[in-house]
Amino acid sequence: MTAQILDGRAQSAAILDRVTTQVAAFVAAHGRVPVLATVLVGDDPASHTYVRMKANRCAKVGMQSRRLDLDASISTETLVEKIRELSADPEVDGILLQHPVPDHIDERAAFEAIAPAKDVDGVTRTSFAMMAFDEGGFHSATPGGIMALLDAYDIPLAGRHAVVVGRSPILGKPVGMLLLARNATVTYCHSRTTDLADHVARADVVVAAVGRPALIRGEWIKPGAVVVDAGYADNSGDVEYEPAAERASYITPVPGGVGPMTIAVLIDQTMKAAQARETARAARLGLTAATTGPE
């Protein structure tokens, strides 16, 4: 058996094509361009690359990206103040705080300064709660991208055993909740799980989200399982790719799998945030739906 590739590049391109059409209609209806504000703290080269890629994708679909670069020595209090200013800015539709921030900063406090209506990266407690209770809101971008990729290949989830390896609040935990909402049976594991190989070997769907190269050995993969590798470190994923691909039915490459989907979901959710803001504005002004543009 050789696994079929879950092609994140192709599927993200399809999402961005759709958003491009929506942006053009939005601009025609409202006379303004949707705006994503990105906040980058420090000089981490990888973070600079990621923010630049997101700005390029914004430009590709016709959105505006407003970038705020802050010194690595900034305090939590000042960072929170800067993010609250963006939350209050009527010209900004979505806010992204690039992860990770320097160690001395309280990242959770910074995330919580993002207004939920502009939390297009799905990092606040409000977004997590709404997602967990299936009450709308914005998905964490990488988990949302994973689900969109699985959907694009019509991979069934109901009744299947999904093992999530990783427990971060913006990746492992939320993707498990999204899988649970699709009626999968979910087991959470992590780098300190005892008998990790046994848990993985029983999984119909494996989501690797630790950031430790080759943590998951190829021989652990159950024949026919679906493997989604969301880890990335030293230019490789969490899963030992070649032997895993010989056993799995579907697998994501690294790079080219989950990463492009993350950016596509971020852009898509920024579009949704802009539409929601205009719908709310119209409701306040008593305008009809016909004047608010397409949803």
From TrEMBL:
UniProt cross-references to InterPro entries, sorted A to Z: Aminoacid_DH-like_N_sf, NAD(P)-bd_dom_sf, THF_DH/CycHdrlase, THF_DH/CycHdrlase_cat_dom, THF_DH/CycHdrlase_CS, THF_DH/CycHdrlase_NAD-bd_dom
Catalytic activity: (6R)-5,10-methylene-5,6,7,8-tetrahydrofolate + NADP(+) = (6R)-5,10-methenyltetrahydrofolate + NADPH; (6R)-5,10-methenyltetrahydrofolate + H2O = (6R)-10-formyltetrahydrofolate + H(+)
An example Gene Ontology molecular-function term: methylenetetrahydrofolate dehydrogenase (NADP+) activity
Family the UniProt entry places it in: Belongs to the tetrahydrofolate dehydrogenase/cyclohydrolase family.
Biological processes per GO annotation: L-histidine biosynthetic process; methionine biosynthetic process; purine nucleotide biosynthetic process; tetrahydrofolate interconversion
Listed pathway(s): One-carbon metabolism; tetrahydrofolate interconversion
Subunit: Homodimer.
Superkingdom per UniProt: Bacteria
Name of this chain's protein: Bifunctional protein FolD
GO cellular component terms attached to this protein's record: cytosol
Domain Tetrahydrofolate dehydrogenase/cyclohydrolase NAD(P)-binding: 140-276
CDD domains: NAD_bind_m-THF_DH_Cyclohyd (cd01080)
Residues at which NADP(+) binds: 166-168
Protein function: Catalyzes the oxidation of 5,10-methylenetetrahydrofolate to 5,10-methenyltetrahydrofolate and then the hydrolysis of 5,10-methenyltetrahydrofolate to 10-formyltetrahydrofolate.
Residue ranges of domain Tetrahydrofolate dehydrogenase/cyclohydrolase catalytic in the record: 6-121
Alphabetical keyword list: Amino-acid biosynthesis, Histidine biosynthesis, Hydrolase, Methionine biosynthesis, Multifunctional enzyme, NADP, One-carbon metabolism, Oxidoreductase, Purine biosynthesis
Gene3D superfamilies in UniProt: Leucine Dehydrogenase, chain A, domain 1, NAD(P)-binding Rossmann-like Domain
Transmembrane stretches, start-end: none
EC numbers on record: 1.5.1.5, 3.5.4.9
